[in-house]
Structures are given as C-alpha cells and as structure tokens.
Amino acid sequence: MIQIQSFVFNPFMENTYVVYDDETLDGVIIDPGCYEDYETKELIDFIDNNNIKVNKLLNTHCHIDHVLGNQLIKDKFKVKLYIHKADVPTLKSVEVYAPSYGFTKFNPSEADEYLEEGDTIEIGSHKFEVLFVPGHAPGHIAFVNHEHKLCISGDVLFQGSIGRTDLPGGDFETLISSIHNKLFQWDSDYTVYSGHGGSTSTEIEKKTNPFCALKN
Question: Where does the Metallo-beta-lactamase domain lie (predicted)?
Fold first, then answer.
C-alpha cells in the first residue's frame, strides 16, 4: 500500500510529505519545509525508523516555505531534486529574500531534473502522474495516483480555500482554470493533500469551496 506521512514545518505551517510503498519501502520526499534542527531531526528520524529508502526529492513549487530543507535532503540522502522548469526563477529568488524572512541560515539548492505534465513518478509499485497546475506559482505541479484516488496538490487547492495569487508569477484566473480543468475533472472523489492545513476531497471542494466550487 501507498503510505503518506505529513509533517508541519516552519513559521508558515507548511506540510512536508513522505510518500512511500510499505512493501518495497521505496519513498520520496515532497516539499521539505524543515529549517530548524528539531524539524530536520523529526523528518529524518521517521525515515530512518521506518527504513524508508528515499530515492527522489520533489517540489510542487518553489516558494520559500516549501524548499527550506531542499539542500539538506539532497546531501543527506544523495538524491536529485525534481521541479517544473518554469519554477526555476522562483527557486533562485529564495536565496535573495530568505534573510528578510529571518531565514539567515538558508542553504540554496538547484534542480537536477525537470518534470512535465504527463510524466510519471514511480514509488515502489505505485505510479503518480504529474499535473501542471500553474496559478499560485508559474511552475506549480501536483502528483496524482489514480489507483488510490489521491492527489498531493501543494498550494493549489485547500480545504475551503485556494492558493494565494498575489505573489510573483501568480494569477487568479490561471489558478481557477487549473483547479477546474485538472483536479475537478475526475469522475470519482479524490483525497487532496494540500501544502497547508488538513486534507480535503475533490467532492467537498467542488460543492462548497467559496472560490472555485462548480455551479450547478
């Protein structure tokens, strides 16, 4: 079975995910927001205690709260960082503004590989499809597993809300289009693991989300 373990890190209360196959123990880390030593220890202890073999580092997008632990994870597990190419400027800019947010010990990272719409991430025997869902960030992607009907959406869709669009590269209409034309196209109900807050479902958000609910 696929397992998803979440951690809440840094002052932005960002969700970091470890996704792994509990049979093969192959796994990936998505959006490592760990910055303080105790946060890093919590993440690594979980991986070590469960004998997870981390083989990839994925960013849904590259805002500061989602990339604080990138370089540490790359160094610790000797893995490559995968992002969408359109978010390279987003990632590079973090080094410039991190000190103004108080992250004076930020260690910048660079992407090693680029993901595109339709690419597949394999985690043990499970496959996750890459979705291109810009609007919150220009190179925002999400990861969906149709077998288990789950999506790791980053800052696209939240419980009762959506990602903010007032940051560089953000656009409200683009974000709504991403939600309607990608996440809301699935016939059945999918669990959505967001970049902040608790998980939700496509069925609930289609009906009740004040920003993007579908009209009857």
Answer: 13-196
Residues of the domain holding 45:
2-208
- 16-31 tens-digit pLDDT: 999 999 999 999 999 9
Number of domains in the chain: 1
Q: Decide: pTM greater than 0.85.
A: yes
Q: Quickly list DSSP for 57-110.
A: EE-S---HHHHTTHHHHHHHHT--EEE-GGGHHHHHHHHHHGGGGT-TT-----
Residue 215 forms part of a structural domain: no
CATH number at residue 182: 3.60.15.10
- The continuous run of DSSP H or E covering 153 comes out as strand 150-154
What's phi and psi for 17, nearest 5 deg?
A: -120, 135
pLDDT tens digits, 179-208: 999 999 998 999 999 999 999 999 999 999
The answer to the question of residue 204 being in a domain is yes
Among 46, 147, 31, 49, which Cα is nearest to 94's?
A: 31
Q: Cα separations (Å) of 80 from 34, 70, 75, 121, 185?
A: 17, 10, 9, 13, 31
